[in-house]
């Protein structure tokens, strides 16, 4: 049964995977630090290909197993912080659809990079990818080994609306956690006729980009004066630079899409590649 989501909840997709449990623990910490309720969702569709690996497993056993998953996740949450209010939903259907519906009321949606699917053919699971693309709230994608502490949050910026949202969210999170903030704008012109470059050369583009980004950073710094900020403008591949930063950051924050692409695009190439290959948790802003 799909329960109601309290506004401002930290919504978490849970299953039996190690990635899911790491995501749950990350969400518990986030909920504690932001004084938010949590809503746990487990879903399983009976026409999912994984059923071919579980011949003879009927709907009743699947539902009973799902209830055990939710009970375990709720108990785990209450043991770690008994003051967090926890509600649950057991959905008969694809979990991504339920998580996207719940995102309308969520402060953030948290999912593991891979669920308990046996069809792990890519570096990012289908549920994580679908939720990151279609959520109405920020989405945190967590990997099973995302437990290092570097004292730094890194945010990728590119002067788009999504980027400004990512910068504001990253400043807020850095202030909440006492971490420093690394602001990175990396851009690699295709050639001299790159429309983003226009009639400017690299030096002129860098000066313009730095002026705009520093103005945005200054605005956020005024709202969050305690946050230590480092800013870098780099002529390089943004995907490679952000993935490199994930090796020394507790969190990467990016917009769901940049200034390129086409109208209606929900998840851009940079966001998709960083989600798939970053070694730290990644938050995607819509």
TrEMBL record:
Domain UspA: 10-143, 150-285
Top-rank taxon, per record: Bacteria
Family matches, as PANTHER family: STRESS RESPONSE PROTEIN NHAX, UNIVERSAL STRESS PROTEIN UP12
Homology family: Belongs to the universal stress protein A family.
The protein's name in its UniProt record: Nucleotide-binding universal stress UspA family protein
Natural source organism: Flexivirga oryzae
């Amino acid at each position: 049964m799909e329960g109601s989501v309290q506004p401002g909840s930290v919504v978490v997709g849970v299953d039996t995977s190690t990635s899911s449990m790491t995501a749950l623990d990350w969400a518990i910490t986030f909920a504690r630090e932001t004084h938010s309720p949590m809503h746990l969702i487990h879903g399983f569709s009976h026409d999912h290909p994984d059923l071919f690996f579980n011949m003879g497993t009927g709907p009743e056993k699947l539902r009973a197993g799902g209830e055990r998953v939710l009970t375990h996740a709720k108990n785990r949450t209450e043991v770690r912080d008994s003051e967090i209010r926890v509600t649950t939903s057991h959905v008969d259907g694809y979990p991504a659809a339920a998580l996207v519906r719940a995102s309308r009321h969520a402060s953030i949606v948290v999912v593991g990079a891979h669920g308990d699917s046996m069809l792990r053919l890519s570096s990012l699971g289908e549920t994580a990818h679908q939720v990151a693309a279609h959520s109405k709230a920020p989405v945190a994608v967590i990997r099973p080994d995302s437990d290092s502490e570097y004292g730094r949050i890194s945010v990728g910026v590119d002067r788009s609306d999504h980027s400004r949202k990512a910068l504001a969210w990253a400043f807020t999170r850095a202030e909440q956690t006492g971490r420093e903030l690394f602001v990175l704008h990396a851009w690699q012109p295709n050639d001299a006729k790159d429309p983003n470059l226009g009639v400017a050369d690299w030096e002129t583009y860098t000066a313009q980009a730095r002026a705009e980004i520093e103005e945005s950073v200054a605005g956020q710094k005024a709202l969050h004066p305690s946050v230590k900020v480092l800013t870098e403008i780099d002529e390089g591949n943004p995907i490679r630079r952000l993935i490199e930063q994930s090796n020394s950051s507790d969190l990467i924050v990016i917009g769901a899409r940049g200034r390129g692409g086409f109208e209606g695009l929900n998840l851009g190439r940079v966001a998709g590649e960083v989600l798939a290959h970053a070694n730290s948790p990644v938050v995607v802003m819509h």
